[in-house]
Amino acid sequence: MAYKIPFISLATDAKRSKVDTILGEIRKLFERGDFILGSKVEEFEHAFANYCGVGHAVGVNSGLDAILLSLRVLGVGPGDEVITAPNSYLATAAAIALTGARPVFADVRLDFNLDPAEVEKRITSRTKAVIGVHLTGFPCEMEELSKICRARGIALLEDAAQAVGARFYRKKAGALGDIGCFSLHPLKNLHVWGDGGVITTNSAEIAKGLREQRNHGLVSRDVSDFFSYNSRLDSVQAIVALESLLEVDSVASVRRLNAEVYFDRLAKWVKLPSKGTSEVQPVFHVFQIRTEKRDRLKAFLESKGIETKIHYPVPIHLQPAANYLGYKAGDFPVCERLAGEILSLPVREGLSLEDLHEVCDAVDSFFSLSPSLAQSNTLPREQTV
Ligand SMILES: Cc1ncc(COP(=O)(O)O)c(C=O)c1O
User: What is the SS3 assignment for 17-37?
Assistant: First the structure.
């Protein structure tokens, strides 16, 4: 179906001037021929480390690999446990499982992010790391999580895939834990033209280990210390990432302005996400509202040509892939409640003010003009999680 207001519109949101610059740089790359781990990858890594305010950045080929290689560099493996949120994108848990360790979930708060008290309850002698997820681009409670992890000698990672540029007090996402993991997927505020990822850290030792982890375990051209992956960021994608980095703050500013329209107009109908404060600044990778009438509202907006999404309708602990972990419905009540109520409205930078008001007008009509429509969800909660 062709939507009047699509949730995503990568082609129309791309700026022509940026595309021409990127194509010009790719032609130069072709002439230089340093396609693998070349000068553009290094340039992007330096620029990104500076942007996040950390000592090192290491480009890899996806957000999943960013987390997987980070756990591997910390020595996480079979017999270990890693605690994270059950409402993240499933790659967070997949990365833990792919090391051979056990993903352990802790419930979240109504702000969508890990509840530090729930994390603390799940720590055992096998816990090697905690992965805080800055879901929707809203920084999670890193100060509390740091205290908990530091006291027990547990590593704290950030899944910052949705949160590039988000601020938590004086620091940016990626500089808040021992290691920060980013996706450069085309839908992220900082993105490439395909798959990509990047890892941040202040530890030179971890950065060195990550460079080996992403490149066959090679410590020199011909010597590999351990068998590993080929998960390098391509030079072509590094060129795109460098251009995208120039715009990432303006992307976040436009998204914040777009969000303001929703904050102004929708408060009377639905529960809104936190705006943040001067200390905690989200980047609105996703603008997520909550309503018990979610399914009806989604269908109504769709009938008006407005596309919405749910991030994410099936929590990770209830995915078939997680069956072997033995979790069941009811284990994480806040996460499961959110899964039945959340709805992501379009917030991308290409939206016009008219588009945003059209979304708000449609939400107004749903709740005010069609009270019977708005009565309840079609699906009982059990079927939505
Ligand atoms: C929170 C989160 N973690 C991890 C990932 C995985 O990133 P990628 O798709 O680049 O592997 C994503 C991307 O969708 C994400 O949103």
Answer: HHHHHHHHHHHHHHHHCCCEC
